[in-house]
Amino acid sequence: MQLWFARGSEVSIREQLVTQVVLGILGGDLAPGQRLPSTRELARRFHLHPNTVSAGYRQLARDRWVEQRRGSGVFVRANRPEMADSSGLALDQMIAVLFHSARKQGVPLPVLRARLRQWLELQPPDHFLLIEPEEELRRIVAAEMQQAVSMPVQSCGLQDCPKALEGSIPVALPNRVAAVRQALPDGTELLTLRFRSVVSSLGHWLPAPSGALVGIASRWPDFLKLARTMLNAAGFAPDSLVFRDARKLNWKRGLKQTAAVLCDSVTANELPAGCRAIPFSLLAESSIEELRRYVEFVRRPLESL
Fold first, then answer.
1. For 239-284, where are the alpha helices, taking DSSP H only?
2. Closest C-alpha to 191, from 286, 290, 118
3. Residues near 205 by Cβ (< 8 Å), separated by ≥ 6?
4. Cβ atoms within 10 A of the Cβ of 167, count?
5. Residue 1's pLDDT is what?
6. How many other C-beta atoms can be found within 10 angstroms of the C-beta atom of residue 250?
7. Regarding predicted confidence, which is higher, 81 or 37?
8. What is the pLDDT of residue 109?
9. E strands along the chain, which residues?
């Protein structure tokens, strides 16, 4: 078993020795019945005071991790202490598994230390940050995200994202990933959202009703273009479709006379009273579930694993 000691730490050398031996037992590095190095050997190898090593071994014996055999040395006990004896043992078990896994994967100890230090100093994110250059699309997607999760959702353009990153989980749409990554610092993790399938979402509209007047309204120009293309392909007559750009004045005119209004989730809340709104969500269900898993992990990281 490899040991290391940090001098000048707030944790005493004795406590460091005890903790590492316990982790070695829990992680399987020290087998039942295995003999530990003698007090003199440890003191000489790591330039420790023999009394410090002896005090650590006595504590391990009191806690029933090891047994001291007169004239033979210190040995790992065949039976571990019951987990209920100490509230810290469950945490020690998890730490031991982490070190054991890192060692199996060849992760150097300094790298593991640095990574652990980074995690301990890192404040958990408290909001999503949608990075999208197109303002109207950004507004729609942010609103859909906020409807799906309890964690706050903020948004910004490409130029503003570096200074808005603190405390956030950065999010981007699939067609913006390359541009967003260039604007982010190296090593920043980016959550990629996915669009909902338009074809499958139109299934309950087919076959196209004859003679029905259908409205399409949105503040996002590409929503209007996409809706025109897909509805025409689905069999809706071009003259049965009423398009309204919600950024313009009097855009609500004539929508009450339609059978229904296909719109984005933001525009749905702005339609005239009495209109039958059919909101079309842009985000795929898989992305909504992924956002919710992130929220669960941030709030209960150990329970989400």
1. none
2. 290
3. 234
4. 12
5. 65
6. 7
7. 37
8. 78
9. 66-69, 73-76, 127-131, 153-156, 168-172, 191-192, 214-218, 241-245, 260-263, 277-279
Rounded CA-CA distance 195/87 in Å is 46
Q: What are phi and psi of 252, to 5 degrees?
A: -80, -10
Instruction: Say whether pLDDT at 9 is over 60.
Output: yes
Average pLDDT for residues 287-302, to the nearest whole number? 82
CA dihedral 272, 228, 260, 279 (to 10 degrees): -70
Pairing relationship of beta strands 260-263 and 277-279 according to DSSP bridges = parallel
Residue in the block written with tokens 């020690």: 92
CA-based nearest residue to 262, from 207, 204, 175: 204
Residues in contact with 20: Cβ distance below 8 Å, sequence separation at least 6, in sequence order:
1, 3, 4
CB 263, CB 217: distance < 8 Å: yes
- Per-residue DSSP letter, 267: G
Structural tokens at position 111: 């790298």
Local structure of residue 35 (DSSP, 8 states) = B
| pTM (predicted TM-score) | 0.58
